[in-house]
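Convert to structure. Protein one:
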Amino acid sequence: MDGPSFVNQCPIPPNTTFLYDFDTANQTGNFWYHSHLSTQYCDGLRGVFPVYDPQDPLGHLYDIDDGTTIITLSDWYHVLAPEGQNSFFKTGIVPIPDSNLINGRGRYKGGPLVPYAVVNVIKGKRYRLRIFSLACRPFYTFSIDNHNFDIMELDGIEHDPVPVQNVDIFAAQRISIILNANQTVGNYWIRAFPTGGNPAANPNLDPNLSLAILRYKGAPIVEPTTVNVPGVKLFEGDMHPIKEEHPGKLGSGPADVSIVLSISQPNPPFFDINGISYLSPTLPVLLQLLSGAKAPADLIPSEQAFIIPANKLIEISIPGTGNHPFHLHGHAFDIVRTSNTDVVNYANPPRRDVVAVAGGNMTFRFLSDNAGAWFLHCHIDWHLEAGLAVVFAEAPTDNVSGPNSQITPADWKNLCPLYNELKPEFQ
């Protein structure tokens, strides 16, 4: 029920339906859903999926946490994704968004002066703001003029709060912040400054238009006049999971399986990992496992998948090349070495499911206790389509038999036959 096309399932054909039926397995926090076929979600097939905890261990730190405190950050292109992707492959220039949206609203140069999104607060109240990056490319530096805030969650994992003035949020990452509405009643700019691209490449893109409004109750209905004052940025390594999440639970011993994933671009704009550029298999990896694949040579293609054994400590290292937010499906992981540092932390490393590889070696660990076929990929969707991904085939035999074997409903089994019946122009 994870969803990536040709990893866990075949795509859902047009004019059909597919039911995703799963248990949240006691997970709470900020998640999201989106198409996982080519660059389709760049055209808007995406949304938020918050899971609330009625007994939140950090619930005493905030007063309000509801639908009004959800903030989405996304990019908007004036070309459809297939056209943008084709242009990228021909020119090597990654598509630049024409605008960046906060809660679905934003402006671009020369465009209409549409109203900005508004987040309403009451002076004296404390808010848990749930911030989701639904972007296909840029990462954002998020801040609120004249306000400090505490980072308390990374990708569904609560951490001891860390006070900052701004935070970088990469594609697919989610965070929660605690905002104390303790400033003078008025209007303040919420800023999501986009990076990860040259705005000069698109004259319509103006980072100063990537704004929303924090409005105190009683303030006039006008746009803010506040200015951005750079302050302390979150350093990811300062985040430590709360005690209920058992920080450092993977220990400091040597890993059972160590994998280095080296990124290169011998054939730009396409990416290689360990000399291989990812291409979607013709048959989903999970279906191959259920059909008896147990070794790398059994998988088609075998070069793009790693077989990992059950219940072992897995360590993944990615030498830094560019800015790439890597998402691992099926697991949260401990980032024992964050990018741009040589410090290794096994005692209480940050834990999340999307990590930024940004110019320095990065290492994370997880326990292979969840049988399945799990995608590890850059969440800049244009980079994923250009080959920046691998698949972990985890505990092959456990998928077929035993207490953790896969449940395969009829509509899941029917996806590939229905998809294969489509005319090529619809595939």
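Protein two, convert as well:
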Amino acid sequence: MKLLAKTNRIYLGFSLIIYLLTALAFYEIIRFLIYDEVESRLQVERLDFEAYVKAHDTWTSSPYFVENKIEVSPVQNYPEKPGEVFTDTLIRNRYDGEVMPFRQLTFYKPIHGVMHRVEIRKSLIQTYRLIEVITITMAIFLGLLLLGTFWFQGKLSGRLWHPFYETLQRIKGFNLNSGVALQLTHSEITEFTELNEVLKKMADKMQQDYRSLKEFTENASHEMQTPLALINAKVEQLIQSETITETQTYWIETIYQASRRMARLNQGLLLLAKIENHQFQDSQLVNLSQLFSEKLKDMDDVLAFKEIAVQVRIHDSFGAQLPGPLAEILVTNLVNNAIKHNQLNGCIELESTINYLCLSNTGGTLVSEPERLFERFKKEATGPDSVGLGLAIVKQICDSNELAITYKQTNGKHEFRLSKLYAESTNTNSM
């Protein structure tokens, strides 16, 4: 959910609560004031009643008969300390039968030595209508005020936050490989201006570090490969020499193997750095099922020598979006790993669907922990040819190109499964 939408929802909910409480309080205040006014008038009529009784020592209801506003009746049982009580009551209109609301004042008064209960009433029909009109008018105006405020808040927030979203859009389009500096527009808001300045400094520093790292990678790749190649060439010449002893041959062979391993290690680390720095561009849709099948065919001689059987089941082609050179390295490393760690009279199985590609091979029990198999320099083989970077390179290629790779060992088979990240997340959510 976007920040503006979240803010507007919170503001709308808070405003609704405040407006409802305000409307309820306003209604109660109006009702209290109107009732207070009605009760004051009833008190005045009570004084008029008492003055009339005191002057005439009797009471006649003729002045109130038509409106039926007062009722006097003798009572036998009455409170020891009679007081006055205000109540609401309903009285049916004698002409049209309509029930009408009244506010009633009840008190006790002796007339001719006999206690009488006196009930003075005042119609509330006009009061209720007034309350209804005030309530409806207030609700309409508060509703219009709420909608207007909400609309103005949305427009104002959208305008105020426009520089932020523009900055966000430019950051999304920023590319380290392009060499173009990050350009951000000036904002009148101080916080956004400070944010743009910090982001620009960070982007410039990232570009500078990226260029330095890229230059180091390229220089290291060139400068280190040359002396290593020279060492290997000279060592090969020494090995072929007839004047060296058997002991010297052994030590020269050891140096030769170490230099070759150093060259492969250097190539692997430089390749990892290039992948992490996204130096491989021009991604394209690659049919990995076809690449794996072709790679296994190219390795027929090696597979025949090790007596390894191959089973290929391509139900559907598995494609992925990645640069061609990285696709070749991914396939080569996984196939070489399946062959290297296989056994005599073993088997390699390739299964492919549109959602995943699975390469499995027979072999011995895994010594290390499965979750650490893709770490750098984590290797099962102990030979001098292994540098422990093959599966780490595979993992880095997958992570950089929206692919997921998992390992599983079942029934003496080691299985590597490739799938697409979005497909994997969808399956996880549905489980």
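Residues 3-157 form one domain. The chain has three domains: 3-157, 190-276, 284-430.
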